Structures are given as C-alpha cells and as structure tokens.
Write the structure tokens for this entry.
Amino acid sequence: MGAIKETFFILHGPPMISLDDSFPARHFLLAFKERVFSQRPKGILIISAHWETSKPAVNLIPGRQDTIHDFISNFPRALYQIQYPAPSAPELAKKVKELLTASGFDQVEEDKKRGLDHGAWVPLMLMYLDADIPVCQLSVQPSRDGTYHYRMGRALAPLKDEGYLIVGSGAATHNTSLPESTSIDPCVLQFDTWLKEAILTGRYEDINQYEEKAPYAKEAHPWPEHFYPLHVAMGAAGEKWKAELIHHSWSSLTSLSYASYKFVATD
C-alpha cells in the first residue's frame, strides 16, 4: 500500500448498471482492477454527485457502511436488495477534515449516520467486488463553482502519499430532461468533445470556468452536482498532471456521457 500517483473521475451511471450487462460502462468498471488500476489502496475517498451539502461533509461512522437506495421505486426489486457493506474509514474522514480545514475550508461537517449513496456504491461494487477496502464519502457543494471544488482537490492531494485512492463519481454530461433519441444530442456532444480536449491538454482553468468557456455548458449540465467530482479529482492530481481517457460510452438517453478519466501526477 505505497503512495498513489493517480486520481480518477468515473461514471456511476444509472443504478441499473449494477445489474444490467448491456451497459458497456459496467464492463469497464468490472475490469477496473485488472486493466486500469491494480494497486490496492489503503482506503478510498469517493466524491459523489448524490451527496449535496452547503459545506463540505464527510461520513464518519463506525463499522460497516449502510447501502442507501436513493432512487425512485420503479426499478426491479433486486436492485433494492443490493448491499455493499464496505468498511467505514473514520481515520481517512478525519484526515480529509484536517486537510480541508488547514486549506481554508472553515467548516467541514461530520455525518455520523450516513452510509454510501448510489453515486458511491454502484461503481465501487463493480470495481471492488469484495467490499473489503475502507471507504469515506465526501459531499459536493452545488452552490459553489468549479474552482472551489478544484481547490478542495488540491487540498486533498497529500492523501495519495499515504496510499489513499481519490475517486470523483459523476458524469461528464448530465441532462436527464432531454428526450430519448436514436442519436446523441448535438449540444451535449459538443460539450463532451470540448471537455475531452480540455482535459487531455491540461486546460484545468478552462474546466474550472466551464460555464463561461465551454460550448453548451447549461445544456450539458443544467445543474453542476454531477460535474464537480471531476474538479475534485483533477485538483487532487496535483499541480502538474497528465490525463487519459479510460472509458467512453453513452446512455440510451443520449444526453449522458460516461466518459471517465485518469489523472497522473507528473511533478
């Protein structure tokens, strides 16, 4: 469990990705340990789009994590029976709080009841089937901007030196109000293409200011909560990094890009 250079931004997709083999993204997540990142981390810090708070918050609970089925009730019964009882990571939660506080995030809350929402357990149950790695979840603040979340990531970068894996869980594009179609929405596609080019060329300032810099930012992300985990993962990579697109597919809604990225520190 040595130092880790990588951080990741991954899709979590719809909850059904945990059961349905028709999703290419499911197979990407199932192969994550073998094909993408084989090092066993000391613990996992996951930033989920599905935990929104006004101030940064970590779940600091004892024992095993509860599995939160935080979605509508028209899915198959089997989905609500899934449990992912990963160990909690109170030591990691305290380190997160200390690092954020030391970097000027004045108030970091401790949630001593909350388990893992589907933005966390859906990808993790595919990436780490045995549920034997301690997990801490960190919230996003939709009322803030990309730069704020990038700063949050920069503050958390030292965790990698201790062997902790930092994962942002969201979506490269996320507009569920667009109708289903046989083709990808052209506005969303333009944003997704812009984002890929910006990430692969290291234009993190443009990504931090995506609402002004990117084409069709509001069409791709009417609300920012699914995008901010990317900023945290990008910031946690460090001052200098290179990026790699490690997966790309689209949902049947054609408005949800499952593009996933690896950031590797180069400094």
The CA atoms of residues 47 and 54 lie 15 Å apart.
